[in-house]
């Protein structure tokens, strides 16, 4: 893609993705059905429904940030191969975005009011990581997926046991995040310094803690 599209075209793709993520329909994903599609909706107490909706709102915000991160990295990618890898990950993450939004709707919840902020911040970080070169960009991807995977495991423990639909969505997301991280390492991801990993972890906590309520 990088070899056939100019900068203006790639900026248009990035802008279209941002609008689809934040305003309109979700970006085109890989077409996989939601893991919750075949499961009956559980009868949850108001408290459990509110908890599930809040947790899935946090997960949705994380996927908004993931879209922005990959788009920023792809825009700065130095090779067509790296750009293609990042855009493929973004397509699969777009499935997560749609699944989380479906769960929020089923739980009668709402999306985070701060999603534009999460998108803008993650896009800038992704672009910066991409400008630092392929190994660093892939290292950023690997570390992001590792931290997201840990965060999703914590949500599995907190989701109401009867909300099998949300559990199914989160379980598949965990598998996908692990696969994306492994793919990044396979393609030469460079481990990030401890201070960078710690800063990423702190910023992630700020986002997840805020999105739980806003």
Detailed description of the structure:
The model has no long low-confidence stretch (mean pLDDT 89). The chain has seven helices and no strands. Helix 1 (7-22) packs antiparallel against helix 2 (46-76). The longest helix has 31 residues, at 46-76. Helix content is 73%, strand content 0%. It is globular and about 50 Å long. With 214 residues, the chain is mainly α. The protein has a single domain, classed as Ferritin, core subunit, four-helix bundle (Ferritin). It has helices at residues 7-22, 46-76, 80-106, 115-131, 134-158, 164-186, 194-211.
Describe the largest sheet. none
- By CATH, the topology is Ferritin
How confident is the prediction overall: mean pLDDT?
89
Straight-line distance between termini: 37 Å
What portion of residues belong to β-strands? under 5%
Question: What is the C-level CATH assignment?
Answer: Mainly Alpha
Poorly predicted residue ranges: none
Task: Decide which structural class fits the backbone.
Answer: mainly alpha
- The CATH architecture designation is Up-down Bundle
Number of strands: 0
How many domain regions? 1
Radius of gyration: 17 Å
Q: Provide the succession of SSEs.
A: HHHHHHH
Q: CATH superfamily membership, which one?
A: Ferritin, core subunit, four-helix bundle
CA-based shape: globular
Please give the count of helices: 7
Helix content: over 70%
């Amino acid at each position: 893609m990088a070899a056939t599209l100019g900068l203006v075209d790639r900026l248009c793709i990035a802008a279209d993705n941002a609008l689809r993520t934040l305003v309109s329909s979700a970006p085109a994903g890989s077409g996989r059905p939601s893991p919750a599609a075949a499961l009956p909706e559980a009868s949850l107490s108001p408290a459990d429904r509110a908890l599930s909706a809040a947790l899935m709102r946090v997960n949705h915000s994380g996927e908004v940030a993931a879209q922005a991160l990959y788009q920023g990295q792809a825009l700065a990618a130095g090779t067509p191969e790296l750009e293609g890898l990042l855009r493929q990950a973004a397509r699969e993450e777009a499935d997560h975005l749609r699944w989380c939004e479906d769960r929020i709707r089923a739980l009668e919840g709402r999306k985070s009011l701060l999603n534009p902020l999460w998108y803008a911040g993650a896009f800038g970080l992704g672009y910066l990581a991409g400008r630092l070169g392929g190994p660093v960009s892939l290292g950023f991807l690997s570390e992001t997926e590792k931290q997201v995977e840990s965060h999703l495991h914590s949500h599995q423990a907190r989701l109401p046991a009867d909300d099998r639909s949300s559990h199914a969505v989160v379980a598949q997301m965990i598998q996908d995040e692990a696969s994306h991280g492994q793919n990044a390492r396979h393609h030469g991801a460079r481990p990030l310094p401890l201070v960078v990993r710690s800063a990423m972890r702190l910023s992630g906590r700020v986002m997840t803690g805020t999105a739980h309520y806003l």
